[in-house]
């Protein structure tokens, strides 16, 4: 398992945290939560509206694995090609807001960590650092996430900046046309978190960079439909990924409208409340698109075993949001790198124990059949 060495002492985090002592993502979560500003921690934990995320965690865990005997697993290879880019493991960092609240280099550090681990990071359009900072740090291994704002000139400009910065894909988030009215505790956390921004460096770069443009144009364009994707696709040569697909008919429409990939995601519980778990939505979507576009998944991936489960259901790769954020909080770029390597090592171990030395060997047979079939 050549690709699965542990991080050396050169990779100490910003506070001289010895990352070698962090064994799993759970370790990172605990350490990160002790360091994060309280409102941000509460926001990240979906305080008062935890049910969707809880459903995702439970649904992954419910999928039980079946070991395989006497397969040559002396070489286990976790590498994969996603949208034409070879990655060391099928693990990509998801876009999220607020990075500068936990690390001075924010998304730049995340990009460095993901690139060092041999994979890709996704920069939120609501992030704190712009494409010009993140692109060079990522060395071409970065995706630009987009929200569709009413002022299309802003969307167009962000796309052009992303292209100039070396982004390799655009990732349009389609599951939040309206911002949900959070319940009381989440609302308070959101408000308090926004009170923590200290000037433009910590605020959203789109708000800062386009401050002369009317606020109205920065709101979500709630009228956008499938027809509008043509305009977005026409802005660049970059492949388009649609993030936040749960229904198979939407995955088929994504394919028909030229998307190269979909991310099956429920925004890990920050969008529609009581959304169904990704693990339950994934198989139908994989079947519906019939291998013609790539299917990725996120929401509640916490272990290499979860990665293997998602792949067994047909995903090509997964995205990780909170685990990335916890790694960033604890150890900056090195923390992000360590989180990805831990998940990758855990995945390699599951592959060895289920007799699947290459990712292509992972299929539904590694999962226990649903109880009714036994
Ligand atoms: C604090 C936070 C902020 C997020 N911000 C964004 C965002 O700006 N754009 C987006 O598409 N998704 C955003 N997401 C969703 C993530 O990209 C991803 O779908 C989700 O975190 C994956 O689940 P996980 O955190 O359990 O890995 C955010 C998630 C969190 C927790």
Give a description of the structure:
It is built from 13 helices and 10 strands. The chain has 374 residues and is of the alpha/beta class. The chain has a single domain (2-8, 26-364), classed as TIM Barrel. The strands form 2 sheets. An 8-stranded parallel sheet has the order 3-10-9-8-7-6-5-4. Helix 1 runs antiparallel to helix 13 and helix 4 (106-116) runs parallel beside helix 5 (131-138). 52% of the residues are buried. Flavin mononucleotide binds at residues 43-44, 94-98, 124, 126, 145, 173, 243, 265, 267-268, 270, 298-301, 320-322.
Summarize this, please?
This protein has 374 residues and is α/β, with parallel strands linked by helices.
Strands ordered across the widest β-sheet: 3-10-9-8-7-6-5-4
Helical coverage, percent range: 25-40%
**SS class:** alpha/beta
Largest sheet: 8 strands, parallel
**Average of the residue pLDDT scores:** 93
Measured between the Cα atoms of the first and last residue, the distance is 34 Å
CATH top-level class: Alpha Beta
How would you describe the shape? globular
* Distinct small-molecule ligands in the complex: flavin mononucleotide
How many distinct helices? 13
Number of strands: 10
What gyration radius follows from the Cα positions, in whole Å? 20 Å
How many structural domains in the coordinates?
1
**Portion in strands:** 5-15%
Task: Using the coordinates shown, work out and report the CATH topology.
Answer: TIM Barrel
In CATH, the architecture is Alpha-Beta Barrel
How would you spell out the order of helices and strands? HHHEEEHEHEHEHHHEHEHEHEH
């Amino acid at each position: 398992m050549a690709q699965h060495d542990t991080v050396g002492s050169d990779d100490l985090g910003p506070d001289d945290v010895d990352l070698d002592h962090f064994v799993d993502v759970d370790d990172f979560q605990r350490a990160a939560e002790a360091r994060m500003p309280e409102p941000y921690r509460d926001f990240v934990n979906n305080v008062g509206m935890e049910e969707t995320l809880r459903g995702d965690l439970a649904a992954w865990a419910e999928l039980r694995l079946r070991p395989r005997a006497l397969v040559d697993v002396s070489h286990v290879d976790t590498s994969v090609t996603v949208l034409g880019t070879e990655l060391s493991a099928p693990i990509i960092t998801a876009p999220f807001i607020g990075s500068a609240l936990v690390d001075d280099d924010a998304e730049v550090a995340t990009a460095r960590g993901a690139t060092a681990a041999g994979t890709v990071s996704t920069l939120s359009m609501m992030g704190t650092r712009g494409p010009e900072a993140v692109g060079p740090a990522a060395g071409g291994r970065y995706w630009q996430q987009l929200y569709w704002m009413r002022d299309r000139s802003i969307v167009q400009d962000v796309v052009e900046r992303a292209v100039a910065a070396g982004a390799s894909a655009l990732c349009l988030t389609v599951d939040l046309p309206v911002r949900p009215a959070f319940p009381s505790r989440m609302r308070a956390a959101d408000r308090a978190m926004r009170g923590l921004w200290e000037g433009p460096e910590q605020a959203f770069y789109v708000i800062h960079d386009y401050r002369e443009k009317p606020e109205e144009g920065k709101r979500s364009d709630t009228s956008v439909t499938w027809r509008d994707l043509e305009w977005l696709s026409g802005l660049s040569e970059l492949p388009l990924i649609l993030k936040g697909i749960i229904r198979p008919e939407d995955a088929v429409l994504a394919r028909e409208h030229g998307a190269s990939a979909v991310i099956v995601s429920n925004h890990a519980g920050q969008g529609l409340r009581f959304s169904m778990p990704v693990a339950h939505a994934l198989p139908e979507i994989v079947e519906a698109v019939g291998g013609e576009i790539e299917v990725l998944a996120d929401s509640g991936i916490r272990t290499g075993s979860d990665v293997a489960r998602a792949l067994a259901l047909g995903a090509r790769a997964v995205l990780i949001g909170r685990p990335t954020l916890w790694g960033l909080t604890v150890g900056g770029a090195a923390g992000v790198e360590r989180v990805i390597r831990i998940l990758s090592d855990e995945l390699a171990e599951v592959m060895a124990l289920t007799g699947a030395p290459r990712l292509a060997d992972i299929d539904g047979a590694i999962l226990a059949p649903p109880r009714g079939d036994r």
